[in-house]
C-alpha cells in the first residue's frame, strides 16, 4: 500500500527534475511579459509557445527511446502550474498539447508510423491540438458524427469542428471520428493529421470572457488522401478511459492551481504590505487571506492525490479502467474547478479595488475571467451526471489511504 | 449454470445494444459495438438483478464487461463464490 494519498501536499508526488522546473520558469517569464496583451487582443500566446519550443518542453513526455525525456504526468503537471501563474492561456495550450501527447505515448507505441511521429514531435517540437467537439454533438467527447472514409490504403475525413483550440497554430491535430461511415456514433477512433494534410476553414471566432489566448475557433476540417496508418487502431473509448480522462483532469487542475496560487500570492503580498504600514494591527483582509490559503491547500491536496493515484495505476489497464478510478478523476475535476474560482474571488476580495483595476501590481481581473472557464470546460454538470451513473454500481472501500 | 443465451437476453434490454445483439459473436468487443459508460452501468445493474449477484469493485473495470463470453464467465464466477 502506498501512503501517497495523505494530505501532506507539500511533498510532491515525484519531485520533478530541477532542470525541467527551471526550464518551465524561464518560459513562464516570457509568458508573463505578454499575458496581458494575449488576453486583451485575444491572440495566441506565440512568445510563450516559442519559448516552450526553445526550452524543448513540447517533447518531454515522449519516451527517451524516441528522442524525448520520458517526463511523468507529475513533472508535466508541475510545469502546468508554473505556467498557470504567468499566463493561463499559455498554460492551457501546454496542458492540452500534453493531454494529446499522452494518448500517443500510451497508445501509439505499437505503431511504427506513430513512433516516427513521436520522434518528430520531440525533434521538431511539433505543437499538437485536439479536435473532439463537433457540430451536432457538442462537447460529448465519446460520440462523433464524422467518419473515416477509407479508399484503398488512404482515407478522407470532413469534420465540422465547432471548437479546435489553437487549431490555426497547431502542427498536428488529433481528431476523433467514427471508425467507418456505418459505425455507431460511439465507435470512434483517433486520427493524427499533419498540418499539410488538412485544410481548415474558420467557421467561428473565439471571442470570450477569459482564456482568450487559446484561440479556440471553430473550423471546417477537411483531410483527403491521408494514409490509413495514421489512424490509431485502439478504440477511442479505450484511449479516452486509459489516458485522456486522467491527463485532462490532472493537467487542467494543475493549470487552475497555478492561477489560484498566483491570486493567493497577490493577496498575501497585499496583506503583508498593509501590515507593514500599520504595525501592531492585523489588517482587515488577513482573515479572508487565511480562508483563501486554507482552500488553496485543500485544492493542492486534491490535485496531488489524483496525480499519485494516476502514477500508481499507470500502465495497468485494469486499474485505469476501473469505475472507482473514473469516479476519483471526475471528483478531482469538479472539486478543483470550483475551488479555483472561489479562491481567486476570495483573493480579489482581499486586495479589493487594486485587484479589480487593471494595470496594478495586484490586478486579478484576467485571472478571475480565465478561471471562470474551469467549471465550464467540460461542464461540471456533465461530469457529475457521469459520476452519478457510475455510483449506481460502485461499492466503495471506506479506506483512507488507498482506493 | 449461466448460459450465453441468458447474457444475450440481458443485453437485449439495453438501449445502446438492443438492435445489434443478434449480430454479435460471443467474442465481439461490446464497447466497439456501441456500449458506452452509461450502458455498461445499466448492464451491470441488470446482471446483478437477474442473477442475484453483486459485482465487487474489482470486477467493475471495462474488461469484465468487454465481451459476451467474458460477462458469462464473470457472472458464473460470482455465482459460484456466492453459493460457496
TrEMBL record, chain B:
Ranges where the Carrier domain occurs: 1-79
Task: Kindly indicate where the leader peptide sits in this chain.
Answer: none
> Entry's Pfam families?
PP-binding
Database matches in InterPro entries: ACP-like_sf, PP-bd_ACP
The protein here is known as Acyl carrier protein
Amino acid at each position: 500500500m502506498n501512503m501517497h494519498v495523505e494530505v501532506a501536499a507539500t511533498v510532491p508526488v515525484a519531485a520533478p527534475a530541477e532542470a525541467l522546473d527551471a526550464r518551465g520558469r524561464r518560459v513562464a517569464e516570457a509568458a508573463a511579459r505578454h499575458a496581458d496583451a494575449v488576453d486583451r487582443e485575444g491572440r495566441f500566446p506565440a512568445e510563450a509557445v516559442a519559448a516552450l519550443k526553445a526550452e524543448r518542453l513540447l517533447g518531454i513526455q515522449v519516451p527517451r527511446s524516441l528522442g524525448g525525456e520520458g517526463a511523468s504526468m507529475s513533472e508535466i503537471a508541475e510545469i502546468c502550474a508554473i505556467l498557470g501563474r504567468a499566463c493561463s492561456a499559455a498554460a492551457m495550450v501546454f496542458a492540452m498539447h500534453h493531454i494529446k501527447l499522452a494518448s500517443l505515448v500510451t497508445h501509439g507505441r505499437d505503431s511504427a508510423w506513430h513512433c516516427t511521429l513521436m520522434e518528430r514531435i520531440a525533434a521538431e517540437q511539433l505543437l499538437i491540438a485536439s479536435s473532439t467537439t463537433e457540430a451536432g454533438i457538442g462537447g460529448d467527447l465519446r460520440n462523433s458524427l464524422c467518419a473515416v472514409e477509407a479508399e484503398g490504403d488512404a482515407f478522407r475525413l470532413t469534420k465540422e469542428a465547432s471548437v479546435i483550440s489553437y487549431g490555426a497554430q497547431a502542427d498536428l491535430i488529433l481528431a476523433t471520428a467514427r471508425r467507418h461511415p456505418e459505425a455507431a456514433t460511439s465507435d470512434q477512433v483517433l486520427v493524427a493529421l499533419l498540418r499539410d494534410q488538412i485544410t481548415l476553414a474558420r467557421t467561428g471566432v473565439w471571442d470570450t470572457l477569459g482564456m482568450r489566448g487559446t484561440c479556440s475557433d471553430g473550423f471546417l476540417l477537411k483531410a483527403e488522401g491521408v494514409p490509413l496508418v495514421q489512424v490509431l487502431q485502439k478504440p477511442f473509448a479505450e484511449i479516452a478511459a486509459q489516458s485522456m480522462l486522467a491527463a485532462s483532469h490532472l493537467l487542467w487542475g494543475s493549470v487552475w492551481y497555478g492561477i489560484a496560487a498566483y491570486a493567493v500570492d497577490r493577496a498575501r503580498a497585499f496583506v503583508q504590505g498593509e501590515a507593514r504600514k500599520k504595525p501592531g494591527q492585523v489588517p482587515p483582509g488577513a482573515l479572508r487571506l487565511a480562508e483563501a490559503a486554507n482552500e488553496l491547500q485543500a485544492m493542492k491536496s486534491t490535485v496531488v492525490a489524483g496525480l499519485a493515484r494516476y502514477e500508481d495505476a499507470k500502465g495497468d489497464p485494469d486499474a485505469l479502467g476501473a469505475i472507482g478510478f473514473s469516479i476519483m478523476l471526475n471528483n478531482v475535476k469538479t472539486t478543483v474547478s470550483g475551488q479555483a474560482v472561489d479562491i481567486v474571488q476570495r483573493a480579489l476580495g482581499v486586495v479589493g479595488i487594486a485587484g479589480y483595476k487593471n494595470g496594478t501590481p495586484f490586478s486579478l481581473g484576467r485571472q478571475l475571467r480565465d478561471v471562470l472557464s474551469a467549471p465550464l470546460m467540460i461542464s461540471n454538470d456533465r461530469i457529475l451526471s457521469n459520476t452519478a451513473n457510475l455510483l449506481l454500481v460502485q461499492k466503495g472501500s471506506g479506506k483512507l489511504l488507498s482506493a | 449454470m449461466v448460459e450465453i443465451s441468458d447474457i444475450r437476453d440481458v443485453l437485449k434490454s439495453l438501449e445502446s445494444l438492443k438492435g445489434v445483439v443478434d449480430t454479435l459473436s460471443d467474442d465481439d468487443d461490446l464497447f466497439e459495438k456501441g456500449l458506452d459508460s452509461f450502458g455498461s452501468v445499466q448492464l451491470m445493474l441488470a446482471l446483478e438483478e437477474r442473477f442475484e449477484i453483486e459485482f465487487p469493485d474489482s470486477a467493475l473495470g471495462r474488461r469484465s464487461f468487454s465481451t459476451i463470453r467474458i460477462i458469462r464467465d464473470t457472472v458464473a464466477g460470482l455465482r459460484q463464490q456466492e453459493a460457496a
